What does this fold into?
Amino acid sequence: MAAVVTIVRLAPAWNRPETRDWCEGLEALAATVTPDAEIYRGRNVIFRATAAGRQVAVKRFPVSSLGRRLIYRVRATKAARAFDHAVRLGRLGVGTPEPLAAVEVRRRGLPTAAYFCTAFLPEFREARALRLPDAADRSRLLALTGAFVGRLHELGVLHLDLTAGNVLIVPAPGRPAGLEFQLVDINRMRFGPVGTATGIANLVQLRLNDDGELLAGYCGARGLDAARLRRLYERRLALRALTQSIKERTRPWRRRLGL
It folds into this structure.
């Protein structure tokens, strides 16, 4: 049976015949992506493309297991959730690449892939670069990263995949610090009050191994006492390292099960 491609989310500025046609051709486009256009390849694929004269980043989410296909009959796909979260973040003033479209591909009524399209960021630095002891401006950027996460939590935003690769440091000459932070991989998020213990557990997901700047920046943004929370932070870091080790060892089995 032929695939049915459906545009499930579309930014108002993209609601034009040429961009709708481009979105409906995403499955064919993804099959012809060249290595130089790939930004990332793993379970998901992220690639750069041009639509209506504009540079676009496209993330393809495959839906390979029958269990997930059945779930997505009643639940929004990752692409749709990422689009909705991006819109909500924008309303809160939280940086994330501009959402353009979410597209789903279905066969026999079941999703086999979904696409999330955003504006392409030509220049950025992942927060994971701050893991290197000799990273440029490391101490200041660690503090600013912590403050950014603290502000997220004060706004009631909890990024459930807050890895250092999902926090982008983007040049912004017009801003006081000369930069802004943007979130990516935002299909798993929770909105609502974020308590201190939950916030610290979220912060340690960055695993930046600093000398206290990250926690100090975080506590400063939330009006908390960094000295009082240091022991909790260190315990959470140790627990995170253990769970991450288990996660890495079981990844092949979880992927086979579609988890």
